[in-house]
Specification:
The chain is of the alpha/beta class. The chain contains 6 helices and 6 strands, in the order H-H-E-E-H-E-E-E-H-H-E-H. The protein is globular and about 55 Å long. Keywords: Signal, Transport.
């Protein structure tokens, strides 16, 4: 049907990590960058794509240096997305765009195991035995709300990250599936939030 309007090209949303069909891409970030360059080539905008790539690489390198200088390289964190469900969230996984950004920043995203869509459902109970994992929580309403207003399960008060003040809200205009500029914004936000959190207890 679409071919009746114009030539149509379909892109697979995510690298097929499980079956090894990701064309060398380990995360959605690398996969998206490849698609971005393919579209640029098809539309005669290769230089603009190279400029966007350079801007992304420079920004991630800048953020990585800030985290390194603060002694936060290797920090482990989870990036959760609010879904409007009681104590049920998306966590971005080891093949997501967020994982690719985290790798470039020199930090570690939990959970590391890749999934088909780059996300997995988690609850507060999944963090009870993860004392080293900080939580960045992408809220659907606004980052100016109290953290407690978003963590509706009584289990959260037993989570080490919550007790130590290492759960923080992220504004809702962060998109975990976008292109280079979305990835750069995500990198900036991860950096700012990790720098502002208390350090992991020894």
């Amino acid at each position: 049907m679409a071919d009746r309007i114009a030539p149509t090209v379909l892109f697979q949303f995510s690298p097929d990590v499980a079956n090894g069909n990701g064309d060398g891409a380990r995360t959605q970030l690398e996969w998206t960058r490849s698609i971005f360059h393919t579209i640029a080539c098809m539309t005669g905008r290769e230089q603009q794509a190279r400029d966007a790539d350079a801007k992304l690489d420079a920004g991630l390198a800048r953020d990585a240096a800030r985290l390194r200088e603060a002694g936060l390289s290797g920090t482990r964190f989870a990036l959760l997305q609010e879904l409007g469900l009681p104590d049920r969230y998306w966590a971005y996984t080891g093949n997501s765009t967020a994982a690719g950004v985290a790798r470039a920043l020199g930090v570690k995203l939990w959970p590391e195991k890749p999934t088909r869509e780059g996300t997995v459902y988690v609850t507060s109970a999944d963090f009870l035995k993860r004392p080293d994992v900080a939580v960045l929580f992408v809220t659907a309403s606004g980052a100016d709300a109290p953290v407690e207003a978003k963590l509706d399960s009584p289990v959260w008060r037993f989570v080490p990250a919550k007790r130590e003040g290492r759960v923080t809200l992220v504004e809702p205009n962060i998109w975990g599936f976008g292109g280079p500029m979305s990835a750069l914004r995500l990198g900036d936000v991860i950096t700012e939030k990790l720098l502002a959190l208390p350090r992991t207890a020894p």
